Amino acid sequence: MGASSDIAAGVAGETVGDVVHARIRSDILFGQLAPGERLRLDEASRRYGVSVGTMRELLNRLASEGLVVAEAQRGFEVAPASATEFREIAALRLLLEGHALTISFAAGDLDWEARVVAAHHKLAVTEHRMLTETDADPTLVRQCDRAFHQALTSACGSRVLMETLGSIHDRYLRYLSLAAIFRGDRSIQEHADLLACALARDAGRAARILKVHIDSCLDYALADEPPAWASGPAMPDQAPPARDVAPRTKSVRTTRRR
User: Fold this and answer.
1) pTM for the whole structure
2) CA 17 to CA 53: how far, in whole Å?
3) Per-residue confidence at 183, pLDDT binned at 50, 70, 90?
C-alpha cells in the first residue's frame, strides 16, 4: 500500500505526522526496518510521503522512544539490537507487568473481565491459525498478544504505569519479531492459564506463569551465541537459520512478512 493510502486510512483527527510516525514505528517493531539500517532523510521522506522537515521531526521523536539513534554528522539509523538489551527489556517488562497484574487483578470489575476474555479470544483464534494455516500472519498474533497482556493490566489505575509498560512491551515485541518467535502450544497454554488466573484473581500464580512465559522466549531467542538477528537479521521475507535447541511441543518459527 502506498504512502497516500496509508495516510488516508488514519484515524479521524490524526495528523499526517501521527500516521507516518505510527507506520515507521510499526516497521521498526515488526522487522521491516532492520537494526542499524540507515534512515536517510531524503529516501525516508519519499518512502513515507512527507517532507524532509517532517521526517526529521518524526525520527527525532522515535529517537526519544529508543527506536532510532540520532548521531551528529551521521544522521539517523534504526536502533541496534543485542542480546544484552533484550535481557534488560525482558527483566523490566517482568517487573512492571507483574506489579501491574497484582493491582489490576485486585481492582478489576466485570467490565475488566469482559475485556480480558474478549482479548484472549482474539489471541487464541490467531494463535490457532498459526498452528494450522500456512499463510497465517505472525504480525497479527503479536498485536493480539500485546492487546491481551494490556487488557490483563488495564485495571491497575495508573496511566503512567500503563504508558511505560506499553513502551517496554513494544520494544520486547520487536525482539520477538526479529527472532521470529512463536512457541506454539506452550505459548497458547500459558495465555490460557493467565486468563484463568485473571478470572480467579490469582495474581501470585499469574506472576509465576508470566516469568516462565518471558524466560522461555528469552531462551528461544538467545539459543545461538551471538544471535543471528543481533548483528543483522534476515530480511523480513526470509526465515532465519534453523537453531539447534531442545524440542518444543508444536512450536514453530514464523516467517516475517511485509
Assistant:
1) 0.78
2) 11
3) confident
CATH topology of domain 3-78: Arc Repressor Mutant, subunit A (1.10.10)
Mean pLDDT of the chain: 84
Q: Which pLDDT score is estimated for 12? A: 54
**pLDDT given at position 1:** 38
CATH number, span 83-253: 1.20.120.530
Tell me which residue has cell 535481557. Answer: 87
pLDDT at residue 147 greater than cutoff 90: yes
Domain ranges of the chain: 3-78, 83-253
Q: What is the side-by-side order of every strand in the sheet holding 75-78? A: 38-39, 75-78, 68-71
Residue 184 is given by DSSP the state T
The pLDDT of residue 248 = 41
Shortest CA distance to 202 belongs to which of 90, 108, 93, 95?
Answer: 108
Q: How far apart are the C-alpha atoms of 234 and 66, rounded to whole Å?
A: 22
Axis crossing angle, helix 159-179 with helix 138-153, rounded to the nearest 10: 160
Please write down the long-range contacts of 126-130, taking CB distance under 8 Å and 24 or more positions apart.
127/182, 127/187, 127/188, 127/191, 128/188, 130/182, 130/184, 130/252, 130/254
